[in-house]
Amino acid sequence: MAQVTNTEFLYKSQLQKMEWTFANVSTKKYTHALHLYPARMHPEIAKQIIEKYSKDKTDVVLDPFMGSGGVLLEAMMHGNQSIGIDINPFATLLSNVKTTPIHKDLNPILTGILSNSSRDYLNKEYHLECLPNKLDVENWYKPDTIKILSILKHNVFEIRDEDVRDFFKICFSLTVRKSSYQRNGAWKIHRISDSDKIEFNPQPMDMFKQIAENNITKMTGMVNAMPKGKAHILLGDSRDITGNLEKINNNILQDKKVHLVVTSPPYGDHGTTVAYGQFSKHSSLWLELPKEKALTVDSVGLGGQYKTGGDLGSVMLNTTLDKVRKNDIELTKNKKPCRTEAVYSFFYDLDKCLNEISQNLVPKKSYCCFVVANRTVRRVVIPTDLITIELGMKYGFNVDKIIHRNIPNKSMPSKNAPENVTKKTGKTMTRESIIIMKY
Ligand SMILES: C[S@@+](CC[C@H](N)C(=O)[O-])C[C@H]1O[C@@H](n2cnc3c(N)ncnc32)[C@H](O)[C@@H]1O
To answer: How far is the CA of 400 from the centre of ligand 1 (A)?
Structure first.
């Protein structure tokens, strides 16, 4: 009979029977759905956690893996200040736009962009200097789409007000995505088939108009809800939260520390789980976001660089690594048993982040909520929830609650390649664990 470890026992005793699927709660309220982003957290999770665990409005909420900024938006709507960190420049742009209320009427500005763009198109004034470097546009767009996108970008980049310009950059980014040969619903970059290309006839100007009109309605909804909090967004690495928080004004942070962490880290290394860098590559190149950072998201993200190191102090992790190692050798016939290192490297980095989080929380008054899912590597389920708890306990975290939630509509591919073998696919995660730890 398999032995039950102390953590498994603790886990079972703290598991709450709560229905947190939120299948009927919209994920699109306020500015939540201005743009696609992979593996977004259901906003209701952030809302419920912030309502329950922030004691008052002066509590500062941190999301060290901010992604599209949903946690920050919910903190703002609740009246709290928040700080978000992400290594992906596109995530910081999107989060900024999502959490910056724009009070002026955006409709006349949209009309201006559209009429200037139509005029330029009729006059054949293409702005080919606006085409992205390092992107073979001919392989991704129809020739006419390239011209229209160059014109639209020129007219968006001409806008003087930075907040307004960024808002329309996000609308432009979605247009770039939808008018390209990129396969819909795929987070990695895949082209549609040659036969589908012939049928594909995007109208980028109409697309941009429709996207912008929708987003203006969302922005108006957010502004009308009168958010009281403010979000502070940092492009940085959460293996150094202390260094990142140095950049935040002293008036916001009590003793430079935060009170509540709400976050969903990556599921594993980006290469074999969700490649956030690949997802945003084309948008980042079109929008001229810092190139070195935009193109290295997946190799710099958690678990991106192979680490060799010692025992991280988690029994669960060690047992899991042994199982992966065994299957690594058996399934690859010793060819390249590399997945054990990949799993270890991810937890090595996550461990660093947990240590950093603990150093930046107000002691004895803080909570930390991690939303994680247990992925499968080499047919072994990786108990990320249990491992996170064990690693967290080393730094003084104690489990307060664990909630399981089915994932009804998370933006994730329905299949993945857990063994990295062509055509060998498996189902992706259908359940998340919401771990709430006290510090
Ligand atoms: C699961 S997503 C977060 C999704 C987010 N909760 C939302 O609702 O959009 C994980 C994020 O972690 C970021 N990330 C990966 N490694 C990082 C690191 N070392 N430091 C900061 N962010 C990182 C990725 O770029 C990605 O945006």
So the answer is: 24
